[in-house]
């Protein structure tokens, strides 16, 4: 029984070290989003510059697109750091409870672990067995934002700039397809004289710039060779945290009490008495003769 207790404590400690590493990685990812903007900002700036050039060449004038990365990455940053800190706290409770046999800490460790495990199982089942349960509400929310706030390639509001850059960067057109933009209240499909846009210009594989700035057929008569019209962008942000529950087996003396070290079971070995060799006579005291 004592071996089972020791083994379960060792398993809890070893697995907690693994989750400490995962928690630190989440925190590092959050700090990278906060402090490492110069690393990924270059890629976004190049896409932003090509969109600005296309706007200028197609007669949209000089437009400066300012995408506030902080407003986009800040919620993700806080989510990463929050998850990392939560994992570290859970690991701390598990390690202290296992090493020092604090019953309260073990309870505080096991309850969140069970909740996390249940959430993980539900998310995995939905993601693999019924992905539409997750994708449909997400796509509906993204489409609703497009319908209410998307302007066009020259739009300067956050949603328009974010969608234009995302569609060029990830080679897509809308959350489901180009039909997400049909009927958008702020999108002027007749902005360009003599042309009726079927998709935003940002859905074009090659943005109309330079000598081709007057050719808008990639958006007025889109095909799969000139437009990302049927390519989907479904940004599914799912944090699947692998966890487990540890079972501590009580000792023979009953439940382990707080701040009490369980006794170590020892067995006293008794050496057997050596048998006299065959033929060897015992030393006996002969009775005295009178």
From TrEMBL:
InterPro entries registered for this protein in UniProt: Tetraspanin/Peripherin, Tetraspanin_EC2_sf
Protein topology in the membrane: Multi-pass membrane protein
Lineage top rank: taxon: Eukaryota
Entry-linked SUPFAM superfamilies: Tetraspanin
Compartments in which it is found: Membrane
Annotated Gene3D superfamilies: Tetraspanin
Protein name: Tetraspanin
Protein's organism: Sinanodonta woodiana (Chinese pond mussel)
